[in-house]
Amino acid sequence: MARPIRDRSNLLEALAITASAVLLLVWQEAYFSPAGILFLGLLALSYLNYRVGNRDVLYPAFTFTAVWTAVVALYLVCPLEIRPLGWKTTAVILGSMAFFSAGSLLGNRPFYSKGFHARKDSDGADQDNPQLRIALLVYTLFAVAVVMADARNLVGGGSFLSPGFFMDLRLKIVSMGLEGEAVHTNKFILSAFTVGSLTYLVFLLEERRKWLQVLSSLCMIILFLVNTSRAFLMWALCAWLCVVLLERRERSLSRVIRWLSAVCVGSIILMASVKFLTNARTEGGSALDEAGDLTILYIAGPLAAFDYVVYHPDEFQGQPAAVFEGVKTRLSRMDIVRVTTPRSFFDDPVYVPFGMVVYTCFKPYYVDFGVLGCLLMFGVIGVIGGQIFFHAMNGSHVARFLFAYSTYTLMTSTFDDHFATHDSEIGFLYACVFAIGYFWISKRVRFRIFRNPSPMATSPLIPAQE
Question: How far apart are the first and last CA of the chain?
Fold first, then answer.
């Protein structure tokens, strides 16, 4: 009888990570500082969540704490002057992380009987409906053409092949946002970005024809270029990364660390490149150095900005980044509740000592609900994330879609909140309606207009298994 294979690398990995963390703290003389304790606490939570999540890098609690651990490490070695963290900030962040981890653990389990899941999964869950995907792609192609024409009118002409066109477009969008003006008022154009991004995600998850996946991805790239938002690009990258990992049978850190690191470094370089293109037109001087510095500050800066929020919460009342602001705004249009319209799209800046207008994912919950409310909210978010993860790992198409859609909120949580502010809750509602309509309703109402794809085709966007 063959002996079971045991992984003997766990102890060595733990010792190596601990030694690296201690050396980092000694090097920066931060071992007894609030930032140093925060780093050690996050490192311990990351390792605990990795073990609890069965060594799966997609486990929400591990993703959340691991990203924060990396950002705090960068904060410790930040080469520029930056505001030091206080003990209260460390307690709020570690407490929220602990509640999120506990919530993920609670949510990562079945809440229904096995018989219920068996009946639900057997009722058409494995049927494919490629005709609807084609219809969505045709809609997206038409929407891309309309959005490109609208962007050209917004700038006042120019060629889409010129980098200067996109620089001018970005400046126009930012200036309109600062003045509180709506960039797009046409509902079809507004829906184009939402439907286009959700269609892109469906094609990543379900489409087996290579040329259609490539075409869908090209549409997503064009939508990003005319949107000019780095958040839009980051969402697409995070969704792709999640889908790639979902296709792998083995997702332990040792198996994916190499190419996962390459993807992360590539994403940072891409973000810096986007900033470089904008900065070359607006700042002058060494735009490349400026883009590199700003990339570091955009990663470490929000943490310092949140420290300011913790000690001055009253200064941030009534600002745009408020919890459920999108829901409250729509209810106010129906005269159900009264909401004061924010005076601008962005929060007021603080200086730490450089200016920042983003304050991590914790800021709106801390300002609106206080310390206890912030802890409880992240516990609830953890339960929801754990439940989606559980069903995604058990083959639910709807859960896989929602899980890939929400990965961006965890990956960018150190920058800003995308759980329930900035209309994110409305985006989640649209995603849920879209997922139910596509994966549940449409697979029971069959459309047979086009020929079904070959089941042997594979995706060029998903790397082969190791």
Answer: 27
